[in-house]
Amino acid sequence: MTTSTLPPPSPADAPPDRPPQRLKSGGSVVRKVSLRNLAAHKVRLALTVLSVVLGTAFIAGSFVFTDTLSHTFKGLLSDVGQGVDVQVTGQEDDSSGVPLADVDRIKTIDGVRAVQPVMSGQIVLIAADGKPTQSGGAPTEGLSYSPPAEQLGQPYEFTEGSPPTASGQIALNQGAMKLAKLQVGDHTKVLAPSTGTVDVTITGVYKTKTDTGGYIGALFAADQARSLFTDGKHIGTVYVAAQPGVSQDQLRARVAQQLPDMKVITGKQLQADTEKDINTALSFINYFLLAFGAIALLVGTFIIYNTFSMLVAQRLRELALLRAIGASRRQISRSVLLEAMLVGLTGSIIGIAAGVGLAYGLRSLLNSFNVGLPSGALQLTPRTIIVALLVGVLVTMFSAYTPARRAARTPPVAAMREEFASTGTSLRRRTAAAVGFGLLGAIALAFGGLAPSGGGAASLVGLGALAMIIAVLLGAPALSRPIVGAVGAVVARPFGAVGRLARTNAVRNPRRTAATAFALTLGLMLVTTIAVFGASAKHSINALVDNNVRADYVLTGPDAIGVPVQAGAVAEKVPGVASSLALSPLDVRINGKSSGGTAVDGPLAQLLPYKLISGRGELSGHNIMVSQTWAKDHKVGPGSSIAMVSSDKRSVTATVSGVYENNELLGPWLGSGDFGREVTPPQFEQNFVVLIKAQPGTNLATLRTNLENATDPFLVVKVQTAEEFKGSQADQINGLLGVLYGLLALAIVIAILGIINTLALSVVERRREIGMLRAVGIMRGQLRRTIYLESLLIAVFGAIVGVAMGLVFGPLFVHTLRDQGLGEISVPWGQAVLLLVLSAVVGVLAALWPAARAARTRPLEAIADL
Amino acid sequence: MNSIASTATGQNATPSASTSGHGVAARAVNVSKIYGAGDTQVSALDHVSVDFARAEFTAIMGPSGSGKSTLMHCLAGLDTVTEGSILIGDTDLTGLSDKKMTQLRRDRIGFVFQAFNLVPTLTALENITLPMDIAGHKVDEEWVRSVVTTLGLNDRLTHRPSELSGGQQQRVACARALASRPEIVFGDEPTGNLDSRSSSEVLNILRNSVTHLGQTVVIVTHDPRAASYADRVIFLADGQIVDELRAPTADSVLDRMKHLEEI
Predict the structure, then answer these.
(1) Which domains does chain B have, with CATH numbers?
(2) Which of A94, A531, B173, B205 has CA 20 to 30 A from A723's CA?
């Protein structure tokens, strides 16, 4: 290395007949050293670039993923309002829709070119194997088919067969055909919530942009769609097209004038509304990914920073030599920065590519959980590239600059002396700041915990959590000594001297230890918080079922349609059934606002015992019962009259008979089954769930078989005991947790790579010391064990802090949502311990390669300057 | 070949046979060490044979590149020989596995290096008992205490290396080398980084361990004053033993060195 820094021969020495050699400036020599230095240490270079790749891949991946999602959805949206100039629907929350007479009236309005009634509703499609088709999170709907002449916007494009023309015929989108494994000409069944099963023949297959991620759209002939999805008097949505020369706004005004009771919006507004809806629906995943990106950025920055501080420390002597031969501080800084820029650039470019791969993997992962994400082309926007490049290069240069400045400030002689100990500056200021943030966080957490349940409290806890994370970020170096010491005292003790070496190594550089462990801390904090959520949700449901449900069997159906009404009726008549209780939704308007109650059809007290606070438990006629909270909010009590408007606009006056203690299963208010049927159009009738109680002495197994046989024609009804019901609810929660854990696994992988990186570099850094240890007799195995233990201690340190934070945040978040069905806090202690054990394993795995490298160190390296 | 050394210099000393009757602690037999291959091949040791008697203090001297460090590394089991054999006591190091070699260094040899002797994260006492701790051997506390006391380290035991002066660090290294009562202590320029007062302290420690405890000590040095503490000085040049001196003084060593350079 040093030879390359020798100045070229001075011109005076050159033979006179040759032109004098051009002297290269000192700067370019320093730069040359910089570049050669990069090439000379391949492993070191690879690790450094890797750290940048990790950081930027995470960022780019997050962006690519969200961009792809929103791009695909925007693509779908461009179709939504196409050809539609005005949309007419019932007023908000009014499910009945546009009266048929009004539809005819629209046709007569001046400026209307065409009118397309849209009738749609949720259905279940039975697949070729006789089971309901699983669409994951994507919608499954039935739609009325309009011939091209009546279809506003893009007409359906059929790839096979023909459109449905009569009742009993449907056409499916390509994705649905594949999902259900059906062919044109096949006979199958479709379930609609109110009408039960409908036999259908598949007449054709059409193409749609929506055709991704599990969407099922069954096209019905208009007549059948009307009977399935409307009450025969209303149409849900009506699309209107304007004649040439009539603007959307003009037409909207005319229609609105004619139909003052209807909600009339322009096609543009429709597009905007739909976009807003979808953005709202996507906001969870967007926030999650943004949070993820922020974590990625933080973790990436840490890894890069760590790597560069170590690199420059290792190169102190080399830099000192350059200083000694006359390079200025600025030249040194510039050379290090140039190096950092190259590394940052290379790493970022690879990182962007890796990010695209990451996004692809993420989507595949999510879709393997049936989340139903569309599978359009991955979107790599210029913004993604610019942000990733900027972050990668700037963070790398910043990370390199601080240690480089320190290096440049080190007197050359001090740096060239053999034992140049890296000076550990005081942690006092950093720790003081950590305590400050910790106090702020604790106050916010406490207020959040004490605040009434709801979004405000959750935000307070969120703020507190953020302050705590910053506190931990700042305070981790100070925390590392006691925690690693304590863990080491337990874990490393059996390893004797090796254990002691590992323990002291792990806290040798508290900043580095903390930075290395931080990725794991963040990841496990999230995992633990989510685990507490999951456990609490499961526990809450279990408690709810255990405390309230007195049924022998629970009948359930798919979320979209529930238990078909007829299935409930059939089940009630099965021999051996003493009583059955069907719960169904009640939608009315009270004081102009929509209000959702529960209709209970059956002996409520027997199957779902509730606690009456005041009044009578009577639900006959127009009597309703209300929950404590609802009574308080609406200032009503036994005897109060409540004016309601049904969804088909009939006024009903209900009388409060009693007030019951809040009950998640019952909801805010109850009406009788008859009341429910009175205010709900038949096509919207559905049961959430039907509870069955057996006659005393009935063989439960026989009853189950009979129930299953009786409900079999409805295909989608599941017969479960209360225990099984709890289990299936838990499965749903586990599925959701699985998705989140899958995402967090990425963070853990990054954390592991970060640990590997730091360890590998610190092994290089400690080469001489390791050589000395080998000389005085440490075995290769012992040396490896030392590194394993050191890594284990760092990982467990990170895990303990992360899990501890999760155990604080998780219960607090659950507590703030105690009124949203998360009444019970459950802490998954077993899982928390498992996480700590796993992190120990992860620590050892991360150390495998660095330890192998360390074990190859020859004893002579301690003495000889190799 | 070993006779070349004495004949070449014409001195009356006989290098390879000069044991003082207590037996041999370490022995190099016809040792060659060749680095590299082909054009870049360098012969660091050229058929060297030498014995190191028990309870004797030997200094190995020679100009840079003479092979003195290589000889010590080979003797101490830190490096392997290309040809010939090394014996520590009766154990032939040739062909020993890494494990056996490490064990031998740990249990039978003590080291004092020029620098990087100590583990920075361990206290002085922990550094002193490190080889025994690694081996899982019981530490002879009485002995360690007496070594520590002799070396004047009693009030420094809980300090970390960074809290010790260079001389104190080297004394801790000496204490470590002596604490496990090895068969032989090797020093690689043990005073190379020290001022003259600290040098004297370290050399006196080594000298006394030979005189009073019967310890065998071999050091490599380029400092005639350091060599004068030894019972015997061996001179190397170009990979061969070229001279030997008994009961050296700083002046006599310097004389020989000058003489060597003139050859």
Answers:
(1) 54-77+96-262 (3.40.50.300)
(2) A531
Q: Hey, CA dihedral for A792, A795, A801, A804, is it positive or negative? A: negative
Chain A residues whose CB is inside 8 A of the B193 CB are 418
Question: Which of B78, B160, B164 best probes binding to A when mutated, by most A CB atoms within 10 angstroms?
Answer: B78
pLDDT value at residue A326: 75
Q: B166: nearest CA in chain A?
A: A419
What is this model's ipTM?
A: 0.85
pLDDT digits (tens, 9 = 90+) for A287-343: 666 666 667 667 777 777 777 777 776 677 777 777 777 777 787 778 778 888 888
Facing residue for B106 by CB, picked from A508, A776, A780: A776
How many contacts (CB atoms, under 8 Å) link A and B?
Answer: 85
Average pLDDT rounded to a whole number, residues B153-175: 89
Under DSSP, the state recorded for A132 is B
Phi, psi of A230 (to 5 degrees): -130, 170
Q: How distant is the Cα of A860 from the closest Cα of chain B, in angstroms?
A: 6
Q: Percent of chain A at pLDDT above 90?
A: 10
pLDDT, tens only, A823-834? 788 888 998 999
For residues A324, A326, A329, A330, the Cα torsion angle rounded to the nearest 10 degrees is -150
Residue A71: pLDDT over 60: yes
Say how many CA atoms lie within 13 Å of A491 toward its Cβ.
27
Asked if A774 is an interface residue toward chain B (Cβ–Cβ < 8 A), one would say yes
B225, B263, B223: which is closest to B242 by C-alpha? B263
Q: Is A777 at the interface with chain B, CB within 8 A?
A: yes
The Cα–Cα gap between A736 and A747 comes to 18
Q: How far is B124 from chain A (nearest CA, A)?
A: 13
pLDDT of residue B20: 44
- Answer whether A276's CB lies under 8 Å from A285's CB: no
State residue A296's pLDDT score.
Answer: 67
Chain B residues with CB under 8 Å of A863 CB are: 69, 73, 78, 113-114, 116, 188
Mutation target to probe the A interface, by most A beta carbons within 10 A, among B101, B111, B116, B169 is: B116
DSSP per-residue string spanning A525-547: HHHHHHHHHHHHHHHHHHHHHHH
Is A579 within 8 Å of chain B by CB?
Answer: no
* Subunit contact B121:A859, Cβ cutoff 8 A: no
Distance of residue A863 Cα from the nearest chain B Cα, in angstroms: 7
Range with top average pLDDT, A354-363, A391-400, A616-625, B167-176: B167-176
Chain-chain contact of A777 with B103 (C-beta, under 8 angstroms): yes
Reported as a single tens digit per residue, the pLDDT across A417-427 is 544 444 456 77
| Nearest partner of A355 among A284, A300, A400, judged by Cα | A300
Q: Are A603 and A609 spatial neighbours (Cβ–Cβ below 8 Å)?
A: no
B111 contacts chain A (CB < 8 A): yes
Tell me whether residue A43 is exposed, middle or buried, using C-beta atoms within 10 angstroms of its C-beta: 0 to 12, 13 to 18, 19 or more.
Answer: exposed
CB distance B117–A772 less than 8 Å? yes
- Best A863, A865, A866 member to test B by mutation, with max B CBs in 10 Å, is A863
Q: Which residues of A touch B99 (CB under 8 A)?
A: 779-780
The Cα-based distances of A647 to A256, A600, A621 in angstroms read 20, 18, 18
Q: Name the pTM for this structure.
A: 0.76
The predicted-structure confidence for A18-42, as pLDDT tens digits, reads as follows 444 444 444 566 677 667 766 667 7
**Which residue did the predictor score with more confidence, A773 or A153?**
A773
Mean pLDDT of B161-189: 89
Interface of B with A in 182-211 (CB under 8 A): 188, 193
CB B75 within 8 A of CB B110: no
Report the alpha-carbon distance of residue A554 to residue A239 in Å, rounded. Answer: 42
The answer on pLDDT for B13 being more than 60 is no
